[in-house]
Amino acid sequence: MTDIVDQQTRSRMMAGIGGKNTKPELALRRELHARGFRFRLHSKKVHGRPDLVLPKHRAVVFVHGCFWHRHEGCRYTSTPSTRPEFWRAKFEANVARDSVVRTTLLKGGWRVATVWECALRKPEQVETSALLLADWLVSSSAELEIGSTVDEAQGE
Fold this sequence. Notes:
alpha/beta; six-stranded mixed beta sheet
């Protein structure tokens, strides 16, 4: 299958996709801040530059896009039909890097939460995710993953 736009246009479009201050991230930040949590953003001092760093709780939060970080079983995790080998390699590298970052942070004494973009699509989902995250932050659990439904939230 061929692309509907030329290569230069596609390249410009893809380059315009930001990795920081995304809508899901901003929504979650607003909810956490309203609940009294204070955090650092994209700290270069913490491995992997997490979206949120909460030093008081020795915790970091990653807000992952389902497409780019390959949220398993999510309906937003699609693969473009053009250049599938390129995309497969790119996605595998993203997932591998995420795994290394997570492991390094845990070994370094940080607690790690991953909130998937699909869990932040509607205002009520953002609120639920923020509540789950707030509960986790005051707990002693090392990890948390929040997906598109409350049932998918798993604390370990």
